[in-house]
Amino acid sequence: SCSSIGGQLCDYHFIGDKKSWKAAQEYCRKNHTDLATVANQTDMKRLLRSTSAQYQGGAWIGLQRDWRWSQPGVKFNESKWFAGEPNNLNNQENCVWMKDDTWGDASCSRPYNFICYDENKKSGKTFYVSSYHEVTWLEAQRYCKIYHTDLISGVKQLEDFKTQRRKDAEAFWIGLFRDSAWSWSDGSSFSFRSWDQDEPKKTLILIKKNMTWVDALYYCRDHYRDLVSITNQGEQLWVQERAKTASTPYVWLGLRYTCTLDFWFWVTDETVRYTNWGPGQSGDDCNVSGAMDREGTWVKKIDDNHQLNFICSK
Questions:
Q1: Could you state, in order of their start, the residue ranges of all structural domains in the chain?
Q2: 10 Å Cβ neighbour count for 54?
Q3: pTM for the full model?
């Protein structure tokens, strides 16, 4: 439990029972406040002191990669998983499909049919479009954003959709995916991390394979973490250092432009605040993604069907 008096101050309670992360979260929310949140190095020392001196194993804290809906503003607060799902098989299942109103997770590169949500702001009417054309999750999302509003998102939209159609034997992509960014269970925004040397941190790898932007995205998500994002000058310096040895004039970044909503976004769902666009990069076109030249300058005017090296975060 935490108090904001005089700054963030948390009481940590070590629980010696072994549970899954989800069960541990439920236990802490029922009996305390939530799984432990760590705001700074002082909290980290207090957290370590709270554990049993004889206990040498690991213990859950409240850091997680959560599920997120494709449509902005739709919160993930209810789920309808098949038994045993989500299981994140081989640590590669980050997108969600639906069959007969129940969900499962799968690799985002698998082909499925998909469901678009369409909102007509002038008339105030909404409707849903089932596409019986099997594509990857990202291709389904791109299609829905260009020709409709987005992939169907949220339990309310799924319930509305259920009243408009017969039951289908096929599986459909829906707009749910696992966020690549880490967050605290209690909603705290603290950016403090104290990863073990072998655990996730801002480690980058240049992939000297020539791929389209979409293929590069899936490659990074299947083998590492994600296509790299850059949110400040420090990260910019690390990424441009990796880009120097690329075998192509440019390398793909995890930066994408949406024509429908008219803005650039990072695939890790971080806001584009810091930028390093080169001269003559004004204006935005459809079907382009962000790339960096070997000197570190960002460029917009590269069709995402070009094949380039790319940088993954690990």
A1: 2-61, 67-178, 204-313
A2: 6
A3: 0.55
